[in-house]
Backbone:
């Protein structure tokens, strides 16, 4: 034990010493010179090519001058330590420095790095035409490497015109992937405080070993407090992760340019276990023929939790839960035990002339639990042919053991239920308001105005949720069934009582 403690103290001391001798390298696209030393603003380098070859060691910084544009490609392959991170960022006054790819494969490529922070940069990659697999920032773990504790923060990634066709290779603002015959992964990847605008096809997306016969997930992936606007298709898609956390993000007005038969949604995991998606806002998700939901508990996933989110004005609806029953079990773990709770959905599901239920369950999903949500279904457009709250259909099989409980389903028009051939879909103790067509059996149903404290309204920002708290005399107040392991709080953080919780996403207004 004493040897282990001594070794740890020794390593910490070495890291501290190395930090004391750390260097900063400067890059200035206007006044710089690649033949200079690069170790001061007065002797700055000029190009991304030179910066890509900077001899960065633990504790070093690579800094770009504010207010300037740097054209080309930045390659990063460095190793910091837990106590001496390498930082790539900015210096000087003015706007964040712009790294402009101009249509190359990726403006920034981070390969097999650990203990690295990239911050306070603008990054673009706009070519004359769209090209597949075009990226703003690309992160790679390959050939047996575990990449530790990489942080991307306060980046402004914009105008990345990759392909809008997923099968062609797409494109992304930020993408990570793990490859190689010898397993590779990220153990600690944080993307936070970034703004992504006009990134095609996807905003933030992961990749890796998704086949369940070869599953090797990335760990400790956190995607937090990012804003994505006008993404070409999907917003945030963690892939091949275990325990990924997606929280406090805003995804707005995406999928506006998707071609026919291209499908996308706001936030959804794939090939992941134990994903938590919470405190996010998704709105304005578009799609011509399918999907375009705010949130999706997708297939090859177990134990997905979607909670405390605000979804509104999404063409395809609030929620998709799906599983490809035609794929082999050796590849696909199915969709097992997803939980959707304490979310607010307002005016989701209004695709003109096409399929747009508020909730869509497709394929043999098992054990879905949808409880304590408040769902406001506004009037459908005159050219809409789908007034469904729920549509359940086949995708290589039918869902089994689905429970809707303690939800407020509030319709200002007519809303219909289509369970199809789903197996054991149950409704219990929900409150319904408005015209309900084909309502399934619900032995504890309430049919009444829930008496929200505010008017039915929709807009940007989670503060709108407070209008959907319940008045003290609401029929939904304290009439919910208490469920085990229910998260302990409502949509806006009000603690749940031990007994007598309320129906819906919000408790009684205090």
Residues:
């Amino acid at each position: 034990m004493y040897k282990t403690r001594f070794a740890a103290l020794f390593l910490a001391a070495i890291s501290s010493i190395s930090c004391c001798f750390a260097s900063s390298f400067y890059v200035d696209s206007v006044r710089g010179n690649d033949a200079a030393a690069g170790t001061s603003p007065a002797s700055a380098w000029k190009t991304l090519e030179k910066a890509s070859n900077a001899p960065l060691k633990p504790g070093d910084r690579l800094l770009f001058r504010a207010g300037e544009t740097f054209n080309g490609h930045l390659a990063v392959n460095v190793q910091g330590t837990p106590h001496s991170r390498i930082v790539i960022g900015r210096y000087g006054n003015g706007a964040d420095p712009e790294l402009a790819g101009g249509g190359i494969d990726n403006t920034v490529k981070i390969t097999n790095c650990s203990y690295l922070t990239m911050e306070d940069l603008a990054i673009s990659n706009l070519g004359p035409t769209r090209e597949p697999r075009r990226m703003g920032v690309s992160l790679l773990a390959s050939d047996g490497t575990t990449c530790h504790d990489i942080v991307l923060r306060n980046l402004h990634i914009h105008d990345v015109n990759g392909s809008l066709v997923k099968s062609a290779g797409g494109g992304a603002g930020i993408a990570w992937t793990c490859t190689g015959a010898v397993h590779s992964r990220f153990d600690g990847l944080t993307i936070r405080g970034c703004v992504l605008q006009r990134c095609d096809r996807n905003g933030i997306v992961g990749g890796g070993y998704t086949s369940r016969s070869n599953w090797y997930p990335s760990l400790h992936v956190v995607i937090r407090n990012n804003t994505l606007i006008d993404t070409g298709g999907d917003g945030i898609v963690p892939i091949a992760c275990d325990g990924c956390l997606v929280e406090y993000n805003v995804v707005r007005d995406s999928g506006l340019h998707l071609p026919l038969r291209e499908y996308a949604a706001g936030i959804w995991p794939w090939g992941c276990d134990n994903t938590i998606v919470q405190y996010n806002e998704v709105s304005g998700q578009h799609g011509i023929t399918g999907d375009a939901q705010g949130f999706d508990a997708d297939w090859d996933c177990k134990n997905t939790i979607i909670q405390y989110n605000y979804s509104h004005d999404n063409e395809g609806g609030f929620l998709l839960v799906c599983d490809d029953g035609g794929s082999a079990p050796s590849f696909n773990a199915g969709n097992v035990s997803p939980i959707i709770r304490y979310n607010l959905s307002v005016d989701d599901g209004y695709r003109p002339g096409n399929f747009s239920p508020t909730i869509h369950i497709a394929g043999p999903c098992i054990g879905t639990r949808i409880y304590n949500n408040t769902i406001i279904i506004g009037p459908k457009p005159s050219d809409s042919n789908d007034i469904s709250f729920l549509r359940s259909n086949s995708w290589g099989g039918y869902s089994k053991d689905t429970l809707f409980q303690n939800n407020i389903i509030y319709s200002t028009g007519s809303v219909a239920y289509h369970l199809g051939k789903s197996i054991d879909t149950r409704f219990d103790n929900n409150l319904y308001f408005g015209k309900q067509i084909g309502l399934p059996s619900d032995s504890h149903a309430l049919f009444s105005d829930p008496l929200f404290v505010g008017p039915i309204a929709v807009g940007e920002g989670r503060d709108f949720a407070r209008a959907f708290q319940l008045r003290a005399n609401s029929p939904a107040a304290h009439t919910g069934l208490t469920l085990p392991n229910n998260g302990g709080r409502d949509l806006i953080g009000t603690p749940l009582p031990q007994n007598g919780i309320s129906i819906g996403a919000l408790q009684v207004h205090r």
